[in-house]
Amino acid sequence: MAKRSHPRRGSMAFSPRKRANRQFGRVKSWVNNESGEIRVQGFVGWKAGMTHVLLRDTNPNSNSAGQEVRKPVTVIEIPALRILGVRAYGDSPYGLQTIGEVWWDCDEIKETFPELFRRVPVRKEHDSESHKEQLLNSDCCEVRLIVATNPKSLSAIPSKTPEIMEMGLSGGDLSSQLEWSFEKLGSELEMNTVFETGSQVDVIGVTKGYGWQGVIRRFGGKLQSHKNSKKIRQHGNMGDFGTGYVRKTIRQGGQTGFHQRTEFNKRVLKISHPEEDEITPSGGFLHYGEVRNSYVLIEGSVPGPAKRLVRFRDAVRPRKKSYPVEITYVSTASKQGA
User: Fold this and answer.
1) Residues 185, 80, 287, 49: is their CA dihedral positive or negative?
2) How many whole angstroms separate alpha carbon 20 and alpha carbon 205?
């Protein structure tokens, strides 16, 4: 008699399935582009909701080439970021190590961006000129910007405390990147200066959390038979007698959702402002409200619920072919189900 095939039920693709440390993701690597122009490699925004657009299929090899196709899109509000500082890294036997930092003048922060001190204490003294010389004369291997979000400009976000994070730089040599960064201290950074329409980005976010869930909901296992003498919503056994303990590969109940996830090669369809093209649907976005700042349309879905902070970066493994974007219609119909 042939051996019966019995594959494992339920994916163990992501492990460990534990809660993220914070509500926005962490970028673990940046692309090393050899472009001549110096540019920032990332941005952040708040997820407002989803809608749909009609765009013309510009892929000549597609069956629907030249026709209008319907695509779901995610609307993300992207107010300008504030450039706070510059950080340089050097090589060490244990990986990248911070060499030094140059921060924006504290007095100017108090005048133009006082909300920052909700997140960090006021610096008593910081000699920026000496720190600049230190970085220019150091043997650094990577330069990154320290930026802060501006949630005060959003009406949908309850927290008005800025988040501080790093952004990678590409193009030019390290000394020119440092000089370019020093000139940008204190200025605002817009997304349309970072990414273009049609470009590919990686979206990093934290998924919607569901708390503790059983093994059936958490791993998608099969329910036990109605003839089972014990519980139905659990697996048959927890391992063999000889081992004496439960292996970590055994699927059990636990934390579900609120995990950091990265989606690769999401296409930027449009970057605009409500004053030019209104995007808020009738009645507002569910659980979000009205979009008042600049926004970006990302093709497809994005991890996380409404009001979740998501991060963008240059695609680390982009598709070879890209086609121009030609949007003919953006839906602003009500999302209230009426």
Assistant:
1) negative
2) 10
Sign of CA dihedral 265, 269, 272, 278: negative
Question: DSSP character for 80?
Answer: P
Q: Cα 258 vs. chain centroid, distance in angstroms?
A: 13
Q: Tell whether the model's pLDDT for residue 9 goes beyond 70.
A: no
Q: Are 253 and 212 in contact (CB under 8 A)?
A: yes
DSSP assignments along 137-168, one per residue: HS--SEEEEEEE--GGG-SS-S--PPPEEEEE
pLDDT given at position 262: 95
What one-character DSSP code corresponds to residue 289? B
Instruction: State how far the Cα of 165 lies from the Cα of 183, in Å rounded to an integer.
Output: 19
pTM, 2 dp: 0.91
- Compute CA 338 distance to the chain's CA centroid, rounded to the nearest angstrom: 31
User: How many residues does this entry show for the chain?
Assistant: 338
Tokens 């597609």 sit at which residue?
62
How wide is the angle at C-alpha 279 spanned by C-alphas 50 and 78, nearest 5°? 80
Distances (CA, A) of 338 to 51, 211, 247: 15, 31, 50
Give Cα 92 to chain centroid, integer Å.
28
Q: How far apart are CA 246 and CA 242, in angstroms?
A: 11
The tens digit of pLDDT for each residue in 84-140 reads 999 999 999 998 999 999 999 888 888 999 999 999 998 878 888 898 999 999 899
pLDDT 10s digits, 52-63: 999 999 999 999
